[in-house]
């Protein structure tokens, strides 16, 4: 059976820089020039200082973080992922800032080995030319 393709990002003006960087295997987030807050997901307003007008720049981050919570998908809604179940969708807190959390798949980890706080690092799922999606893998010891 042919598996349908996995969905690819559809950038909008707010998220375009994030997806361009991801396609180059770089993880970037917005930083508020007014207060220094790192923002993810891409936003049109700084949720910390509400600076008006918003003044963001894109900055690279390490891609390292710790597992804060997760869910195990055992019955995928999307046929493209059906043969990969069970898989893990994780919320990872990045080391750069408390509360800077990114939700993405966590791959190459046995479901029974999941523990709060395990160190993870970003990797990228290349889904199509110019369309890569961040995901996480367990960090090398
Ligand atoms: Zn701010």
How can the largest sheet be summarized?
5 strands, mixed, barrel
Helix-strand string: HEEEEEEEE
Distinct bound molecules = zinc ion
Residue-averaged pLDDT:
96
User: Whole-Å distance between the termini?
Assistant: 38 Å
Concise synopsis of the structure shown:
The chain is mostly beta strands. It has 1 helix and 8 strands, in the order H-E-E-E-E-E-E-E-E.
Write a structural description.
- By secondary structure, the protein is mainly beta.
- The chain has one helix and eight strands.
- It has one domain.
- The strands form two sheets. Strands 4-5-6-8-7 form a five-stranded mixed beta barrel. The protein has a three-stranded antiparallel sheet with strand order 2-1-3, covered by helices on one side.
- Strand 7 (119-128) and strand 8 (131-138) form a beta hairpin.
- The chain is globular, with a radius of gyration of 16 Å.
- Zinc ion (ZN) binds at residues 32, 34-35, 37, 46, 48-49, 51.
Layout: helices, strands, pairs:
Elements: H1 16-23, E1 28-32, E2 38-39, E3 56-60, E4 64-73, E5 87-94, E6 101-107, E7 119-128, E8 131-138
Parallel strand pairs: 6-8
Antiparallel strand pairs: 1-2, 1-3, 4-5, 4-7, 5-6, 7-8
Bound molecules: zinc ion.
Zinc ion (ZN) binds at residues 32, 34-35, 37, 46, 48-49, 51.
Key terms:
mainly beta; 3-stranded antiparallel sheet; 1 helix; binds zinc ion
């Amino acid at each position: 059976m042919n598996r349908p393709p996995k969905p690819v990002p559809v950038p909008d003006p707010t998220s375009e820089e994030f997806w361009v960087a991801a396609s180059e295997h770089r993880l970037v987030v917005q930083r508020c020039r007014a207060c220094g807050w790192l923002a993810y997901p891409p936003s049109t307003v700084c949720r910390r200082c509400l600076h008006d007008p918003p003044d963001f720049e894109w900055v690279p981050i390490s891609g390292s973080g710790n597992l804060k919570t997760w869910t195990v998908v055992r019955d995928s809604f999307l046929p493209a992922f059906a043969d990969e179940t069970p898989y893990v969708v994780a919320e990872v807190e990045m080391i750069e800032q408390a509360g800077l959390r990114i939700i993405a798949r966590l791959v190459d980890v046995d479901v029974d080995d999941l523990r709060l706080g395990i160190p993870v690092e970003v990797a990228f799922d290349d889904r199509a030319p110019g369309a890569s999606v961040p995901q996480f893998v367990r960090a090398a010891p």
